[in-house]
Amino acid sequence: MWMSLIITCMVGLQPVCNRAKYMDSYADLLKGEHKSIANAIFEAYLDQLEEIDGMIPLTAEKKAMVYLEELTESLSLLDDRGPWEEASHTLYRSILLQARQAANPWPATVWVDLSVFDDVFVSAATNRAIDIFLQEHYKTDLEERYMALAAINDGNITLCEQLTENAMKRWSTYQQNIEPYMSNSAVAFAAYPKLNTGLTVRKVMRDLEEVNTPKLKQRYAKWENWHSAQTKATITLIRTARSTFLFDPWSSRCGASTNKQAVKLQQQLLQLSATVRDKNSDAIASLQELQ
Fold it and tell me: CA–CA separation, 85 vs 247, rounded Å?
């Protein structure tokens, strides 16, 4: 009971389509006769959510998932021309992907929601692949995330290790679906949220735009090339940890690996992280001395 209360406070009710998400997703379609029908469907959905209040978190989330699916399916049938169906699939997909982070014992192991990137065109084939993935894996992932949170609370290391391995396998499968979009730096940083983005160095460079000397540009370009290489190296280490050794060195609350090679990899990652941090500080000093 105590663990359920903690998770309830931490998570809130998920996955939920609130009014803002509803309006944002269907704004261009809420016209004419469809508007009143859609609004009635959404109000009925909100009434259903009130029935979930007081349930234990896992049960509530499963119920919320069913209600969300029913909502989006009902809205998708409002016409046979496609826009309602496309908007409904996008909404359902996005809410599930984002809601997953609310109760995630591996918070750095993210299933990236590509729909949040305005400059990224996502193919219909990718969206279908993600939809199929969610159909096959979301419910199991949901149950095992709550099992892992309980295992953390109980100090059950063995169960944590097994659940972590399962989670890393699912992440690897999901990552294959979005791999074509990883060349976009925003997507990469979202997929690996603890990457050092070099934001502090970039900010200094923006502040020095008035200086704008060839030497300044040269120093910044040198740092940027180096930072890009280190980012790729870090991603390679993280992917190896998750896909090969089936643990996440960035999410250590559950399932830390004791494998000697995995421990060595984690040490390499820590050293690389420290090197990037130090190099960024050096780059800032080097740029500022030219102002």
Answer: 37
Dihedral over Cα of 29, 25, 75, 12: its sign: negative
Mean pLDDT (the chain, rounded): 91
Question: Amino acid identity of 286?
Answer: S
Name the pLDDT band for 291 (thresholds 50, 70, 90).
confident
Best CA proximity match to 177, nearest among 137, 216, 132: 132
Through-space distance between the first and last CA atoms of the chain, rounded to whole angstroms: 60
Instruction: Kindly state the DSSP code that residue 123 receives in the 8-state scheme.
Output: P
Is the CA virtual torsion 170, 178, 233, 274 positive or negative?
negative
Question: Virtual CA dihedral for 158, 165, 11, 135, nearest 10 degrees?
Answer: -130
Q: Which two tokens stand for residue 99?
A: 């809601």
Q: What are phi and psi of 108, to 5 degrees?
A: -85, -10
Which of the 8 DSSP states describes residue 120? -
pLDDT tens string 223-246: 999 999 999 999 999 999 999 999
pLDDT at 62 over 90: yes
- Residue 233 burial (CB < 10 Å; 0-12/13-18/19+)? middle
Rounded (10°) CA dihedral 149, 154, 155, 158:
-70
Cα angle 288, 199, 251 (rounded to 5 degrees) comes to 140
pLDDT tops 70 at residue 266: yes
H/E element, 83 = helix 83-99
Q: Which two tokens stand for residue 286?
A: 């080097």
Token pair recorded at residue 214: 């060839």
